[in-house]
Amino acid sequence: MKPGPALVGVLSAILVGLLVTLGGLEEGAPAEDLGTGQMFNRIARRYDLANKFMSLGMDQGWRRGLVAALELAPSDRVLDLATGTADVAILEGAAGPAVLGVDPSANMLAIGRTKVAAAGLDGTVELALGDATDLEHLADGGFDKISISFGIRNIPDVDGALREMRRVAAPGATLAVMEFCEPTEGVLAPIARLFIKHVVPRLGALLSGARWDEYNHLQRSIAAFPPPPAFRSKVERAGFATRPPVFYAAGSVALYVGTAN
Fold first, then answer.
1. Angle subtended at Cα 80 by Cα 75 and Cα 84, rounded to the nearest 5 degrees
2. Cβ(83)–Cβ(62) under 8 Å?
3. pTM (2 d.p.)
4. Most exposed residue of 14, 36, 192, 253, measured as fewest CB within 10 angstroms of its CB?
5. Angle at the Cα of 179 (from 178 to 182), degrees rounded to 5?
6. Helices 216-224 and 200-208, axial angle in degrees (round to 10)
């Protein structure tokens, strides 16, 4: 019997997390740089292919959901953090507004610039090296829309990053955050948790040739990230009024949307 779409969604979400977070580690790579720009420099060349292959293309649908939630207007000033290879920034730029994509990985940005040029958005989407917790080069209240997808879990100081997002957000600006989470409800929740804790490290090692224990970072980072109610509270404490999150992939992916107070 074929797996239902909900089960496929759960497994795809976690597999994307595996490849996005850990896909290119070489054996003996330092564990302390997991989730950093240095790590993403190593996996940059496989990043897009891994997303498409392991998610059966569903990751783009999740990103389109994030962009739709921003309700972009051509006059908007948009900031996309942890922009990676610029998939979200390109979707945003295609709607007309000026977009600044920021990421700590130079190699990811290099690929992103090629994609931006191919999309004919050189005059609309700008990509820059940077850290979501340190946006001091950006003016207070300079952006109408702010996004970050599958990146905030890798930021050590989540509260600091959210405060920076609020600082650069104009009054009434929209924030959209998309991130993985551990499903806690529904018949598929135990399957997803088992997959994260036991299958992902071994599968990652098989795909890369690295030690399987290096791949525990994905499981640890998802488990350590605040559950949706707690993360929503963090967003609100940073100065955004939020709405209930929207879930994808049987609860494995959450979209949080807030409005700057």
1. 140
2. no
3. 0.83
4. 36
5. 140
6. 140
The answer to whether 192 and 258 are in contact (CB under 8 A) is: no
- Mean pLDDT per 10-residue interval, the chain, length 261 residues: 54 54 44 57 69 68 96 98 96 98 95 98 97 93 97 92 98 96 77 65 49 57 90 98 92 93 96
User: What length is written for the chain?
Assistant: 261
Q: Six-digit token pair at 66?
A: 């994030």
Beta bridge partners of residue 24, listed in sequence order: none
87 is in an annotated binding site: no
Is 131 among the annotated ligand-binding positions?
yes
Q: Which two tokens stand for residue 235?
A: 């967003």
The pLDDT of residue 144 is 98
Is residue 149 marked as binding?
Answer: yes
- Residue 250 marked in a binding site: no
Nearest to 173 by CA among 48, 234, 261, 59: 261
